[in-house]
Amino acid sequence: MIAIAFKGGGPYGSEVTRGQDLSGRDFSGKTLIKQDFKTSILRQANFKGAKLLGASFFDADLTGADLSDADLRGADFSLANVTKANLTNANLEGAQTTGNTSFKGSIITGADFTDVPLRDDQREYLCKLADGVNSTTGNATRDTLFCN
After folding, report:
1. How would you class 148 by CB atoms within 10 Å of its CB: exposed for 0-12, middle for 13-18, buried for 19 or more?
2. How far apart are CA 122 and CA 108, in angstroms?
3. What's 16-148's CATH class?
4. Beta carbons of 87 and 106 less than 8 angstroms apart
5. How confident is the model at residue 100 (pLDDT cuts 50, 70, 90)?
6. pLDDT tens profile 59-76
7. Is the pTM of this model over 0.85?
8. What is residue 17's predicted lDDT score, i.e. its pLDDT?
9. Strand partners, 21
10. What are its GO cellular component terms (predicted)?
11. Is the distance from CB of 32 to CB of 52 less than 8 angstroms?
12. Closest by CA position to 60, among listed 70, 75, 50, 74
């Protein structure tokens, strides 16, 4: 049997970040543009203040992750589990989501969801929690989610 390891892309170096268990890892404040975290387990990982433009979290488990103050513009959250995550003041402008992406139980105060495609039920759920204004973009969370 041959084991196949996927190389992680992006400036995190040659360390493999795709398909790995990186639970509890500290990526806070790091520049991880277009980093490949596909199918990784990132439970309770710390991404506070990280620059994650275009990063791929495709089918990743971000349960309880700290994404507060993170720049997540254009990140791919397709099929990702983003439950109970801290998205306080995160900028998710243009991030990708799919039908199964879940933000249940997440903190979204001040998060910017501009141009993020969400299922109607996810949008309705997030609108019940939405408050605050993103300190970077100046956009109100409720406005970016098109809440009534």
Report:
1. exposed
2. 13
3. mainly beta
4. yes
5. confident
6. 999 999 999 999 999 999
7. yes
8. 87
9. 41
10. chloroplast thylakoid
11. yes
12. 75
Q: Give the integer Cα–Cα distance in Å for 99 and 136.
A: 28
Angle, CA of 101, 123 and 76, to the nearest 5°: 35
Retrieve residue 65's tokens: 């992750």
Locate the domains of the chain by residue range.
16-148
Structure-block tokens of residue 24: 């509890």
Q: What is the pLDDT of residue 6?
A: 39
Angle at 121 between CA 115 and CA 123, to 5 degrees: 30
Read off the tokens for 92. Answer: 């998710």
Q: Please, what's the b/e burial string for 58-83 (b: 16 or more CB within 10 A of its CB; e: otherwise)? A: bbbbbbbbbbbbbbbbbbbbbbbbbb
- Can you tell me which residue has the tokens 């639970």? 23
